[in-house]
Specification:
alpha+beta, Helix Hairpins, D-amino Acid Aminotransferase, Chain A, domain 1, OB fold (Dihydrolipoamide Acetyltransferase, E2P), 5 domains, seven-stranded antiparallel β-sheet, five-stranded mixed β-sheet, 24 helices, binds ligand D41
């Protein structure tokens, strides 16, 4: 690069960084992730070092941070709030350690280490132990007066307690938000139709910089103190460790993850330990801060351009990165839930290469407005599944992005995709047929309360599926033809194969209720399966029942009725059921106590019952009608053939009259049954 192009690049970088500073510090809405920002800033410092003639006091390298918002009062810090240098890898950490040893002419450095919280630095000023005012870090010299907001944070005490309280002291620390509080806040924001925060840091920043402190009071903010600024009073400390101890004694919260460190090797290993535990902490951290523990040594080291030479932030790989969405596809979970997934241009996030990120569900895609070809932030936080945080709208090319459409057919098995009105998720209705769900389906089918196949556990099912012995539950009943192959299977002896085949054989004799339950229809548990068996008696009637009929059964609401109906509507499911119950194949059977009489005058007729019947209970009447092949539904419509009324009939009686439907008194009904 020559001098001219360096000048152009320097100007360009300064312009970009200024813009990002404004987005980050003033608007609390960063446009690029931190590592991207760090790269720009580093490139600029390097160029300024190579071409000192272009160094300027207005450069963002000289002035990290932003002007305070005009709407807050300004407060000057008594002692400036310094910034922190970074080490991005072990080599840079070694170089830092070496600089200190050289400068102090010592062999080994004692550090005080603490987690680096990803929040906002603040300065809290106490006079005679009373909280007087508090300010954001601002540009390091002057911050914004956020006293009233700081006072709403529960862990920050308005009075210092204990002995040796100085006449005046500046306490420095970091305001942040825990993951749990962040999630709660975003849920609350959604309920109130307010904007979502992209991450806990933005949420903390947005909450702290409210002009109305009543809003801040409702935001769950936390605080850890990490040091002191100016003070006046007889304080007795010689190390940073003692400073933290002192702060703790006065009642200030201090990070529990702080420790004295003996030398570089221990520092590196502490950084690694914290890095491994990072995902399990309740809040975001982006590194470990190492500070020379001895205050005298700190004084000798001093600082360069607003950063102390005695401290460094040894950073972790960032948890947020940006990349491009190559496509949006759907995945089918073990329970049939359809989850949209963003396929990404691969990117390293938190030290792991990420190529996919979950988009959770369709509502989420619409809310974030994520489209194919968009640039997005990817985040790996508390858990390990990376997610799309937000779209970088600045980078959207309207001509290239494609709006996502939920497919209507399962990508794995082709069955219909269904959604229930009260749920955000879409589901594959393929149940027992869909191979994405079949393991789960087979495990359920074989379980004790279903077909009760002894010895067919989760592990074995998985193995049988992997080796191609079974794909659906129907295949279990052909296993006997593969006895010899099964014996060859790892860990399966002759005896255990025969035991398994015998258990499968024994499962064929069952009850209708168990069989229905075993099919694993969504939300059809044991009790519902029993109600269905009791009501319909004959399996065939369940298979053809419409949702009205199903809803007429106690405890079956519209959602479950729809699940049952949709299940039997799927051709694939019907094929499997046929195989299971056909005598030539599965041979599953049960005693059908009540058979439908061949045909009667009432076959196919629809009845509604209303009022109290004297000769028999409502259920008994229903049963009798069903035995004769009639249907009994709950509500009167133009499809109703007869309405039977007992004592004090309800509105169904009036409706039937209006629609001109044949009304039967109990006496007339009995006569009809007897013909
Ligand atoms: O947890 C932190 N974010 C943190 C920030 C920390 N644990 N210690 C810090 N120490 C300093 C010095 C060494 C300059 C007193 C800091 C910061 N500074 C800091 N935070 C924001 C800018 C600088």
């Amino acid at each position: 690069m020559n001098r001219d192009s360096a000048k152009i690049r320097i100007d360009d970088l300064r312009h970009q960084i200024d813009k990002h500073n404004h987005s980050y510090y003033v608007l609390d809405e960063p446009v690029i992730p931190d590592p991207e920002y760090d790269r720009l800033l580093r490139e600029l410092s390097e160029l300024e070092e190579l071409y000192p003639e272009f160094v300027s006091d207005n450069s963002p390298t000289k002035n990290v941070g932003a002007e305070p918002l005009s709407s807050f009062e300004k407060i000057e810090h008594i002692v400036p709030m310094l910034s922190l240098g970074n080490a991005l890898d072990e080599d840079e950490m070694r170089a830092f350690d070496k600089r200190i040893k050289d400068k102090l002419s010592i062999e080994n450095v004692i550090y005080s280490a603490e987690t680096k919280l990803d929040g906002l630095a603040v300065n809290i000023f106490y006079e005679n132990g009373i909280l007087k005012h508090a300010a954001t870090r601002g540009d390091g010299q002057t911050g914004e007066d956020i006293t009233r907001n700081i006072k709403t944070i529960k862990s920050i005490k308005p009075l210092l307690k204990g002995k040796n309280i100085p006449e005046r002291i500046e306490v420095r620390g970091e305001v942040f938000m825990t993951h749990a509080d962040f999630r709660k806040l975003n849920q609350q924001q959604e309920k109130n139709n307010q904007k979502q925060f992209a991450n806990p840091r933005n949420a903390a920043a947005g909450s702290l910089r409210q002009l109305d402190s009543r809003i801040t009071a409702n935001r769950p903010l936390s605080f850890f103190a990490y040091g002191i600024g100016d003070y006046e009073g007889a304080l007795d400390f010689h190390s940073h460790t003692q400073v933290l101890e002192m702060l703790k004694e006065w009642g200030m919260p201090v990070s529990p993850e702080s420790r004295k460190i003996n030398g570089l090797d221990e520092a590196i290993s502490f950084h690694r330990q914290i890095s491994e535990r990072r995902m399990t902490l309740a809040y975001d951290i982006d590194g470990v801060v190492f500070k020379v523990d001895d205050i005298e040594q700190q004084k000798i080291l001093g600082f360069v351009s607003r950063a102390p030479r005695w401290a460094i932030a040894y950073k972790f790989p960032a948890l947020e990165e940006m990349t491009q969405v190559l496509d949006i596809e759907v995945q089918v979970g073990r329970t049939g839930a359809i989850t949209p997934v963003a396929r990404l241009a691969s990117v390293k996030v938190g030290g792991v290469t990420v190529m996919n990120a979950t988009l959770h569900n369709l509502d989420e895609i619409r809310r974030k407005d994520v489209r194919k070809n968009d640039w997005v932030y990817i985040r790996r936080a508390g858990d390990v599944i990376p997610e799309v945080v937000s779209v970088i709208m600045d980078k959207r090319d309207e001509n290239k992005v494609v709006v996502f459409q939920m497919p209507t057919q399962c990508p794995v098995c082709g069955s219909d995709i269904e959604k229930q009105d009260n749920e955000a998720v879409y589901r594959c209705s393929g149940g027992i047929y869909c191979s994405a769900q079949s393991i789960q389906a087979i495990i359920h089918f074989a379980s004790r309360k279903a077909m009760n196949i002894d010895g067919l556990g989760d592990k074995l099912i998985e193995q049988l599926k992997q080796e191609g012995f079974i794909t659906t539950i129907a295949d279990l009943y052909s296993l006997k033809e593969k006895r010899e192959d099964l014996i060859k299977l790892a860990r399966m002896g002759e005896k255990s194969v025969d035991n398994l085949l015998a258990a499968i054989e024994a499962s064929k004799e069952t009850t209708l209720a168990r069989f229905i339950y075993a099919l694993g229809i969504r939300e059809v548990g044991e009790a519902t399966a029993r109600s269905l068996a009791q009501h319909f008696r004959v399996f065939q009637n369940i298979r053809v029942a419409n949702t009205d009929e199903l809803e007429s059964i106690q405890d079956i609401g519209p959602v479950v009725a729809k699940n049952i109906h949709t299940f039997f509507q799927q051709e694939h499911n019907e094929e499997i059921i046929e195989r299971l119950i056909s005598p030539e194949h599965g041979g599953i059977h049960w005693e059908e106590t009540l058979q439908v009489e061949q045909s009667s005058e009432l076959t196919g007729k629809t009845f509604v019952l209303t009022g109290t019947l004297i000769s028999f209970g409502r259920d008994e009447a229903k049963e009798k009608l069903q035995m004769l092949g009639a249907k009994v539904t709950n509500s009167v419509s133009k499809n109703t053939d007869y309405v039977v009324y007992g004592d004090s009939p309800g509105s169904k009686f009036d409706k039937a009259k209006k629609l001109g439907i044949t009304l039967l008194s109990e006496k007339a009904f009995l006569e009809l049954l007897n013909t």
